[in-house]
Recover the amino acids of this structure.
């Protein structure tokens, strides 16, 4: 029997939509959200493409009805919008009707504000309030306060696998009986810090990214937030909740290879996928769709392809990376893709891997390039972070 | 049934001396920490080019782990790593900050930046011994035998690993101290909070 921890609500804001419905529409209408950067002034403007949410901080704050003198980072603005949608979607009336936690992932935190106000804060004391929003925990605290969550609040920052680890921790806490309900996900806005950092690493593509293509040229950065509501079986039964899907498997493993790069043979990724299958008590043959990490960097796609080949052998199921729609949203990526995995299960739909032409010679993996309708029961979603922090989640049909 | 766990081997590196299972095995008169580490590296007859790019905290963690794990076949073993210290990666944080502050010679190097986290030392041990196991790095005021004992016991009793490489690895300015040990079902010293405390203090 494969079940797991019930997902009862979802919320999302990304470059392809401000709601779950809008995101689904963009995925199925093949409308990617990759564009030229507008919200941040950067010298790299003409040399990068990004998955940017085209709403100003002002408009986002208006959506949340924040007071004028607020000190929300863009990360917190996205996060609160997505988390509130998820809670609403789960039809939670009283957040404290059971032990409820929030586990939120971020890597950028309030860096966008620090970049703007760090030097002026010394003269203009009114700008100091923005600096206090710098830490990664600030957005989690703000989201928790706005939702009234007091039982357990935590922040996870493990680079690009952050949200996967947040979802995993939440699922494990429910399984262990520490919480009855937990809102899990992540949020990351774009910042000069990440643009310049990834530029220095020479892994930003000048054009639309091409996951799993032999001639891929790097990633497009993105910004987004997504949250899921996880609930224990008792909660679901007691309130007769509609279950959207289940988190049935999860695992995190390391590569023991390098401080930043992933190993060529994808050992950490292989371990993560195998462990997650074991937790879900599923054979690799039962996975119908892999929502890959597929960032379109030389290193990730080679490493992930090798790992997928060693787990699935010749029986590789439908596979695609949705990064060409949203860009790589770093700490939020696994939450965004968790929402897409649930949408895939609910609609029996594999979303396309855009911009793919030529397979990588060594592994010859050919992702789905068109929208494919087929029966889906189990979806495996990968997220790999710097330093070989490899996580895999498995979602199963409700 | 509860497993009987033991401290299989322990070592300490401090005051320019190395002792293993309580016996002094090496000492040197060097004044600088980095020179002493160099002497230790040579004494242990290690040949590992990645060693030279490590920061001092990672070097100390790496050298202590070499001593503990040299006779243990970690390839077949699922060895967890639980380390703690007081100064986190402060020594390297300062070095990195100084490279930012230096207006005449401004060069914040990514090679230094990667070591501005204490758990990178665990990464270096993992890479050297190919350990893809449970690990954690904790920052405490001082060596916390109670915390370590409980954490190590829990990992072993829940079959999360077959052995635990654990202990205290601290470096701050010119003072350094390492106390590392391996906990497993082998050995004669019983794995207890009291024994950990006592071995740390001797």
């Amino acid at each position: 029997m494969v079940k797991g921890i019930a997902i009862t609500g979802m919320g999302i804001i990304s470059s392809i939509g401000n709601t779950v419905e809008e995101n689904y529409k963009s995925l199925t209408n093949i409308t990617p959200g990759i564009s030229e950067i507008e919200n941040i002034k950067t010298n790299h403007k003409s040399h990068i493409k990004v998955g940017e949410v085209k709403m100003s901080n002002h408009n986002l704050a208006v959506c949340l009805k924040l007071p004028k003198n607020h000190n929300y980072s863009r990360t917190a603005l996205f996060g609160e919008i997505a988390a509130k949608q998820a809670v609403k979607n789960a039809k939670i009336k009283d957040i404290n009707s059971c032990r409820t936690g929030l586990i939120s992932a971020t890597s950028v935190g309030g860096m966008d504000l620090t970049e703007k106000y760090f030097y002026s804060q010394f003269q203009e004391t009114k700008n100091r309030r923005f600096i206090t929003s710098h830490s990664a925990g600030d957005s989690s605290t703000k989201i928790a306060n706005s939702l009234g969550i007091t039982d357990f609040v935590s922040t996870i920052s493990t680079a690009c696998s952050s949200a996967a680890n947040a979802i995993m921790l939440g699922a494990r806490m429910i399984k262990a009986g520490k919480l009855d309900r937990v809102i899990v996900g992540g949020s990351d806005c774009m910042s000069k810090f990440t643009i310049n950092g990834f530029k220095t690493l020479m892994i930003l593509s000048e054009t639309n990214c091409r996951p799993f293509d032999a001639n891929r040229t790097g990633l497009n950065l993105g910004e987004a937030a997504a949250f899921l509501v996880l609930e224990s079986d008792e909660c679901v039964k007691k309130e007769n909740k509609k279950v959207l899907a289940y988190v049935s498997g999860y695992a995190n493993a390391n590569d023991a290879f390098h401080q930043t790069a992933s190993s060529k043979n994808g050992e950490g990724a292989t371990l993560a996928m195998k462990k997650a299958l074991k937790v879900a008590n599923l054979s690799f043959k039962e996975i119908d769709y892999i929502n890959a990490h597929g960032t379109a960097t030389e290193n990730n796609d080679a490493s992930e392809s090798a790992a997928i080949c060693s787990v699935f052998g010749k029986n590789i199921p439908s596979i695609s990376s949705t990064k060409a729609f949203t860009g790589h949203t770093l700490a939020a990526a696994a939450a965004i893709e968790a929402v897409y995995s649930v949408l895939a299960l609910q609609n029996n739909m594999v979303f396309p891997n855009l911009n793919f032409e030529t397979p990588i010679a060594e592994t010859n993996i050919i992702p789905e390039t068109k929208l494919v309708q087929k029966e889906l029961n189990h979806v495996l979603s990968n997220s790999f972070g710097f330093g070989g922090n490899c996580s895999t989640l498995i979602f199963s049909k409700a | 049934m509860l497993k009987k766990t033991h401290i299989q081997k322990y070592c300490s590196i401090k005051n320019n001396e190395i002792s293993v299972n309580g016996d002094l095995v090496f000492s040197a008169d060097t004044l600088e920490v980095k020179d002493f580490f160099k002497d230790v590296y040579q004494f242990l007859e290690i040949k590992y080019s990645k060693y030279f790019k490590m920061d001092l905290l990672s070097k100390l963690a790496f050298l202590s782990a070499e001593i503990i794990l040299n006779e243990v076949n970690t390839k077949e073993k699922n060895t967890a790593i639980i380390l703690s210290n007081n100064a986190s990666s402060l020594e390297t944080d300062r070095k990195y900050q100084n490279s930012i502050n230096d207006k005449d010679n401004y060069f914040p190097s990514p090679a230094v930046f990667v070591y501005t986290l204490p758990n990178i030392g665990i990464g270096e041990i993992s890479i050297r011994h190919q350990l893809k196991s449970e690990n954690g790095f904790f920052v405490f005021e001082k060596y916390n035998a109670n915390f370590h004992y409980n954490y190590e016991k829990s990992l072993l009793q829940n079959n999360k690993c077959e052995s635990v490489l654990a202990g205290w690895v601290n470096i701050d300015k010119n003072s350094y101290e390492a106390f590392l040990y391996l906990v497993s079902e082998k050995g004669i010293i019983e794995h207890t909070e009291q024994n950990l405390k006592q071995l740390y203090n001797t």
About this structure: Chain A has a mean pLDDT of 96. The two ends of chain A are 12 Å apart (CA to CA). The first helix of chain A runs from residue 20 to 28. The longest strand of chain A covers residues 5-13.
